Prior knowledge:
Blueprint (H helix, E strand, L loop, with lengths): L2 H31 L4 H29 L1 H21 L3 H14 L2 H12 L2 H30 L4 H23 L16 H10 L23 H25 L2 H33 L3 H20 L1 H5 L9 H19 L4 H29 L5 H63 L1
Membrane topology: Multi-pass membrane protein
Protein name: Major facilitator superfamily domain-containing protein 9
Keywords: Membrane, Transmembrane, Transmembrane helix
Amino acid sequence: MSISKVRLLYAVSFLDLFACSLAIPLLSSHLRSLGASHFTIGVLSSMYAGLQLLSGPIIGSWSDIRGHCFVLQLSLIACSFLYFILGAATAIPIIILPRIGLGVMKHTQALCRTLLTDVVPSKDQLAVQGRLVSFGAVGFIVGPAIGGHMAELDGGFYYVCVAVMIFFWINYGIVYFFLSDIRNEHRGDKKSDTYSHNEGNVLEEYDYQISVKSEFPGIKVNNNVKDNAAVINSSTRNALSEVLQAVTNLSRINWPVYWDVFALKFLLGFSQAIHYQNFTLILKDMYDITPKWIGYTISLQGFVGAMTGFIAEWISKFYKNDENNFHRTLHGFIVLSISFMCISFAPSLMFVVIYLIPLSASASLLRITTSEIIMQRTPPNQRGSLIGSGQSMSSVARMLAPLCSGIAYDMFSFHGLSILKISSAFLATFLTAFLVSSSKIIKKRD
């Protein structure tokens, strides 16, 4: 294992999410300033999430054929120019084009994880992948605050996008000059191709907040095939079938066994996506605060979520008798629901910031506990597919939420969003309470 290359990939992951977090939290406000409706913003967000889901397997298959480093370099260069166009555009139809391009090409985090499998033995991959996620999370904590400061300049969003472009160029230089010689050193290891299933647990413990977390399927390619065009066509068909598989997997789930936890995952993902999708717009519309303070509040949420992930094991010590994780999940959804309510009726920005702390902490813990419930119920030989199905459920929620929230915001203003996220969180609370009472009845019978 090349330690220097691993550290460089950590740096690329950090700079990538740091750069994205400079611009992403400001995008909704920028679109509003150009005259976009909340529905239009929701459509753009849902379109981006859908393109990420569709293009991820295709880009992953192509990288297996053409080379991971080459595709990563191409992705970095393409994204740098697309972000520049995004910042320079002053009309909504023009902004749609770079958003489509970014939805197709922005897979740098997944490509970094793929490159790690080329240089790291399978026995070390879980720990190394976890560190990669941590470095990326730190980048997303720092970025919004700095981006908020830059946005206060005249034409600030343009300067932010120029900075994003420069950071992508820096990453391109790192990959081109120092990582181009990476070869698939461990692809022959049978376990190395299954790392994406294992890292699902790590990803659930960190709050990425944006849809840059698309997974690669790790499609194997026959290196003896001479006609690369035929291979590309074949891999594209396989990739598209795997996208369909993400949906069909949900219909093949043994719903009498797993319906409850997948419903909880959907409701959690839906309520969170509504919150994050419109958070900056709500702060601007309700409290008229500057981009700098919007950046601070977003950074606070990321920091609290990351810190909660680190102390999750300590918190579990208070639930020694909670073998099925239902009590932890119930308490988490209660805190989440109350936090949503308090934020909706907060009299000032100071109270919003205070209520964001339990909200971010409970959301981070709920991502962990719902994953643990799946792991406990699933046989070892089926955990990969069930975790993947859980991620598909979350992806569906993240695709639907922006569209629903856009309609609600346009029709009922801030109150429509509050009703959506509070009702979904309370529904999850009632469902978890039902599961707790059912488990007690089963224990008494036994």
